[in-house]
Structures are given as structure tokens and as C-alpha cells.
Amino acid sequence: MTIDNCSACKAALSGLASDKKQAERVEQLFPGCACEKYSVGAGSPGPVLGEEIIYRMVISPGDIDDEGNLLMEALKDVKLDGLSVFRESATDEDIVALVTDRLTRRASHEPRVVQALIMVKTESVRELSKEDHGRLFCVYDETVPRKKPTDTPVATHVTILQRLQQEGTPNRRGLIKAGQKALYDEIHHQRVAIATFRDGLIEALNERSLAGDFVLQEIEAA
Known about the structure:
The chain has helices spanning about 5-10, 20-30, 90-105, 120-125, 170-185, 200-210; strands at about 55-60, 85, 115-120, 130, 135, 135-140, 155-160, 190. It is an alpha+beta fold. Strand 4 and strand 5 (about 135) form a beta hairpin.
């Protein structure tokens, strides 16, 4: 891959697209996770290594059912503009920024909390594959814009993107769903209790959310 193509990888993974087609575009332009070998995030510490631990926030309401189980629907963004996770190397400041963005809501919406974290090793996501398609997911060190455009992007943010079959592939929709089910089966049970994570850092943010913080009417909640 040339330097110019590396720049193209960064452009494709800029996190600025708003049409929910990033997974499709990246696979078309750089099939087979070709951009993983390069750092594509602003201020990133580098490409995500296989041995790195990454975390996915499980948000309530929205990501879990009444019994506290992770919903498949919570993983839908993996086929759109990417499933947001963060690196174990994230600082407390990074985590506060990411959690605050996820908990931000409109005044008319009910408060959100981080119900749990899903902890997974990067290589276990990259190893998910299908015989006639190869790897199912790519993991990139992508940074994305904050809820407030003036806030600095979080350099330790990571995105998981699904590799989508080409349009016209027989049973394409079923294959995409099967890929997401494989990811769900791999990660849904690897939960970390919020109370024990970073000395209650996220638990304290949950309390602030329930108390009415993180309400910004001028921005649209995710």
C-alpha cells in the first residue's frame, strides 16, 4: 500500500460520514481489512494490535432487554458506520469523554446509563471468519467527532466494521445477519461490572446522568 493509499484509508475512516454507509465503502475501497496495518485515527497511539483488549459500552435503555441481556440490535452499527469501542490503554479522561457523549440526551428523553462493559481481545474479533468470505470484521483505530464539535476527539477510540458482501450476492442479508450473530456469540457473555471498573469511574457518571446531567437540547441524541 502506497502512502497515497494510506491517506485514502484515513479519509475513508475519518468518521465524518453521516449516511451509515462507511462499512460498505471501506470494504469496496480496501477489501479484506487492508487499512488495518496503518494508523487511521487522529492522534491515535497506532494500529490496534491483536493482543489489545477493547471495550464496548452496553447502554440502558436501548442495548439490553428486561432481563439484562445484550440485544442483537445493539450491534447493528457494525454494518453501518461502525461499532464504537475503546482501548484498554484509554486514560480516565478518554473514558469520561466517551461515556459523556454516549449518555448525552435531549431533555425529552429519559436518562441513559452504562449498564455494563463488554471486554474482548481484538484478535478474537479478527479471527471470526466464514469459509467463502474470509474474515468477517475489521478493527480500526478510528477517531470520531464528539457530540460537541468543539470537543477534542478521543484518540483511543476504536471502530469495528463488518465486511459486507457485494450487492447481488445470493442471500446477502442473511449472510450479514449471520456475521453479526457470530460477533454476538463471541462477545455478549464477556461482561465487566461497572462498579469494579476503574474504581467506579463510569458508575459515578451514571449517577450524574440519572441526576439530570448530560442534557443538551441543541444537539440531537444518538
